[in-house]
Write a structure and sequence with these properties.
alpha+beta, globular, 19% strand, 36% helix, Endonuclease, Chain A
């Protein structure tokens, strides 16, 4: 996958990607530079802060327990990248919480790659979880 494919992806962003990009672009997020649909090796990642070697992946339901995603994530980690994955639903409904996790990862001073899942965002709630009781 090359730069041409990355450019095409930039023009076809999901609603969740658009929302996150609005908050990340133009150094708006803590003065840190993020890029979108960035080629890294043979992969194109949704968002990357190359100076901090941080990758953000925004996933829909088709990515649940996807073995290819696990392989891709491990290869990125092997290259020294921290990888954070968020569900579309979380980005759309809990944007500030997602951004807090991203900021925490940016402030992490550890030079070693984190253990798998150490910086992974919590999974989306199961159906019915997190809803307020009506009363």
């Amino acid at each position: 996958m090359g730069l041409g494919h990355a450019k095409k992806l930039r023009s076809n962003m999901t609603d969740a990607e658009r929302r996150l990009w609005y908050r990340l672009r133009a150094h708006r997020f803590g003065g840190v530079k993020f890029k979108r649909q960035v080629p890294i090796g043979s992969y194109i990642v949704d968002f990357a802060c190359l100076s901090q070697k941080l990758v953000l992946e925004i996933d829909g339901g088709q990515h649940t327990d996807n073995e290819a995603d696990s392989v891709r994530e491990q290869k990125l980690r092997d290259e020294g990248f921290k990888v954070l994955r968020f569900w579309n639903n979380d980005v759309l409904k809990r944007t500030d919480t997602v951004l807090e996790v991203v900021m925490a990862a940016l402030k992490d001073d550890h030079q070693d790659s984190p253990s798998p899942g150490a910086l992974r965002a919590p999974p989306s709630p199961l159906r019915g979880e997190g809803k307020r009781a009506r009363g």
